[in-house]
Amino acid sequence: xxxxxxxxxxxxxxxxxxxxxxxxxxxxxxxxxxxxxxxxxxxxxxxxxxxxxxxxxxxxxxxxxxxxxxxxxxxxxxxxxxxxxxxxxxxxxxxxxxxxxxxxxxxxxxxxxxxxxxxxxxxxxxxxxxxxxxxxxxxxxxxxxxxxxxxxxxxxxxxxxxxxxxxxxxxxxxxxxxxxxxxxxxxxxxxxxxxxxxxxxxxxxxxxxxxxxxxxxxxxxxxxxxxxxxxxxxxxxxxxxxxxxxxxxxxxxxxxxxxxxxxxxxxxxxxxxxxxxxxxxxxxxxxxxxxxxxxxxxxxxxxxxxxxxxxxxxxxxxxxxxxxxxxxxxxxxxxxxxxxxxxxxxxxxxxxxxxxxxxxxxxxxxxxxxxxxxxxxxxxxxxxxxxxxxxxxxxxxxxxxxxxxxxxxxxxxxxxxxxxxxxxxxxxxxxxxxxxxxxxxxxxxxxx
Length: 448
Description:
Blueprint: H1 2-16, E1 22-23, E2 29-30, E3 35-36, H2 51-60, E4 81-82, H3 87-90, E5 110-119, E6 125-126, E7 134-135, E8 138-139, E9 148-159, E10 165-176, E11 187-192, H4 199-204, H5 207-211, E12 230-233, E13 238-241, H6 253-265, H7 282-286, H8 295-306, H9 320-328, E14 340-341, E15 353-354, E16 362-364, E17 382-384, H10 394-398, H11 412-417, H12 424-432, H13 435-445
Antiparallel strand pairs: 1-2, 2-3, 4-8, 5-6, 5-7, 5-11, 9-10, 12-13, 14-15, 16-17
Helix pairs in contact: 2-8, 6-8, 9-13
């Protein structure tokens, strides 16, 4: 009884902690407990009677396993396999996750995507026959977690053109205690959670504006060959433009939401009605209890995320030299300052310039960042250009920096130095700058 009471108390506190805001430092807001990126657009209703308010509750709700027979209660349905039991735990304070810092630290805000060579009937990565499309390290009572992950880092050193040294780290994963056999044949990809603010604007950019940036054959000869991903829309039952995820593998916020509920928490929905159990996981497959989150609740969480404003840039005249260097070395060719202009039935989004510093396209980033795992049209070397808005707030928000898809970069400088492929020219341009110029460029990025 005491355990059950503490679980209910934790749920109540988690929901309450994100309800009220007051203005704090520029770009951040002060919640009831701590600074956070989460702030609604002015005038947006986050009361519990509004869809966004309902979505906020579900986003912060800590789900529990089904406790009895009959009608399922709100907040039940966790698992049978899962990584965490709430959306907010993978996106702390509305921000990003990080990879473990030592081999024995669990994947608290990171995950491992899985597949085998080939595609399914809709062009998505073929699931691993024993483990599905995402590794779940935990299970409810009676269902074993799929495996433990130990992370280690290989360190390399290099120098800028002026002789100043730098150090980079590359993660590698070791899978232990696999409950359904070896994972040696799996294509694996370590991913950290991404910020949830500003997503409504990215969703509202007209497709033609995004496609106008594409140059798959590098017709202009600038070395940049951005390509759109084309992904399966489960509602429309056709292939559409991908926008969300590290490889632009989800088309809209409803899919992104439903996919995360399934992969991370084990919650099914009309878009993803079956648990992500491998073919041999009979205990997990037998635990399937039907759809656990209805379409209205999935949409409520998507509405909540559409209501969250990106942090305001804090660029002043002092950062203008860095802004010019950002353009000069070639960063702006992919991290486009203006991604487009939102077109939306929502008044607070419609007509808003989207200053996200991304093109939402796929780019070949070279062998150094390759995961070797294709995803729809994305190759194992391609990644979506991540938005840069709010990048300068990461350290204040989280007490440290974790950048790139697997969180390997512990500073903005490290993230730049990992750029290869289409980003190699910009990386080399950054390396060739003087120390004063590098500091100016970084100061500009920290103002976003």
